[in-house]
Amino acid sequence: MTHDGAVLDPDVPFLHADDLAAVRGDGVFETLLVRDGRARNVSRHLDRLQNSARALDLPAPDLDRWRTAITTGQRTWAEKNGRATEGLLRIVYSRGRESAPVGQAAPRERAETGITRESNEATAYLTVGPVPARVASVRTDGTSVITLTRGYSVDLAALAPWQLLGAKTLSYATNMAAQRHATAQGVDDVIYTSSEGQVLESPRSTVIVLNGDTLITPPVEDGVLPGTTQQALFETAEKEGLRTEYRSLRVADLIVADGVWLLSSVTLATRVRELNGYEMPEPARAKDFAALVEKAIED
After folding, report:
1. Residue ranges of the chain with per-residue pLDDT less than 70
2. Per-residue H/E/C for 182-203
3. Which residue segments constitute the domains of the chain, with CATH numbers given?
4. Of 205, 258, 263, 204, which Cα lies nearest the Cα of 234?
5. What is the pTM of this model?
6. Helices and strands, counts by H and E, the chain
7. Whole-number Å distance between alpha carbons of 146 and 203
8. For position 235, what pLDDT does the model report?
9. Residue 268: what are its φ and ψ, rounded to 5°?
10. Beta carbons within 8 Å of 260's beta carbon, 6+ residues apart
11. Distance from C-alpha of 215 to C-alpha of 208, rounded to nearest angstrom
């Protein structure tokens, strides 16, 4: 589906072979959960899309058109699969074709999909598909993780903004490599650490720690992606009388915490039940935490 709301045949090619999304990962994306026929946390995702596009010097995304496309996407998904079936909605926004990237003049052309566009326009589309099968199990059973170093300091985001540490870019090859390494080690996921040993994030999730009545997550200044679900959670938690805090954490802080979760837009709350081979005790308030996350994404 294009971001102007045109529903395309999923079996008909849409991208050109030289689209910079495919050949260089030069673009940004967002992933939203569709539940009960409605995409969740839309405003925060579109805000982050806008910030990521700005970091990559992409044209400012038309957020109204994206909202229209999301509405069409969620409706189409519900009509074909039923409102009770969860969906994964992915927004993709790239610089366009390598032969005529954004900002260069190019002749008008018609793609085989029948959609007319300027070949030097940014590529903008969304897809809606099923939620991965693993999601249901990790929501219920939790996940086993290992810590892996990213190999650079928490100062990198400030010293080298061109590294795009705060943007959700399509360049996910190293994240996927980390996930494969975890699988090869017999565990489910990874928590990155900095060269100083500070906790950062998971390849696809935000790290959340519970200590007493306080929820803690590493600050974005340490080079982590701002989490949309984490932001919603913190806002809801504060309304419920809990404290929230952004501060640096060490692996030892995870071991002694009352609970550790990986938070993401589609998987939602996944409890870390094993960390570097250590079996983490189940938090006394695990169900309360999961319910709080569910409540947060209702807004």
Report:
1. 101-120, 299
2. HHHCCCCEEEEECCCCEECCEC
3. 20-130 (3.30.470.10), 134-296 (3.20.10.10)
4. 263
5. 0.90
6. 9, 14
7. 12
8. 97
9. 70, -120
10. 207, 208, 209, 210, 254, 271, 272, 275, 280
11. 7
